[in-house]
Amino acid sequence: MSEFYGVFSNYEIEDVYKFIGTERVENxxxxxxxxxxxxxxxxDFVSKDIKYLGVGLINIFNMILDYFPDDTELAIFxxxxxxxxxxxxxxxxxxQKKDRIEYIEMMNRMILRGEDVDYYQAKLNSPFWLEIHFFxxxxxxxxxxxxxxxxxxxxxxxxxxxxxNNFESISKLVLMDFGQKLANGFISFASSYFDEExxxxxTLIELNNKHSEIWLSH
Length: 218
Fold this sequence. Notes:
With 218 residues, the protein is mainly α. Helix content is 66%, strand content 0%. It has 13 helices and no strands.
């Protein structure tokens, strides 16, 4: 029987655990031992059989970055891994398909109750672009602190181009999920990364302001 790595195994990403390595995990556990937590502890994350119904793999990547917030190499590894997914293959494994069906059935039961119908109907959508938005925001926040690295610049530009190319899908899902205008955190961090004359930030801000029914102006 193969070893069990908690949420890493539940989401079939043992390779991410192995990339981090047991030593780094154990060192981080010691660092976090006396710190308060508002959610799942790293110890629970790597050891317990926890399922997060309603979310996909990109959200798990974001949680991992919360435990290792300054690990640039891990951030780049997760970013490259995220590129293998899209809206159509996001719940591709049999296990994730089963969990997704279970979640949709639960949302449909809530809709039938007749309360907060719009909220639960929004949850029937694939969370892929919503999770990409917050994952990219987390990455950009980290990369702003490390922006002198050439390898990071390549990742940031690829990430920003992908965000631009899918801006409509991201914006639509954000509006459906939150139901109100938000400040675009990804663009806020990107504004701190790019020179103001860089075409990427110019395009991002133009797209943001074009969709003023969804995003607060920049």
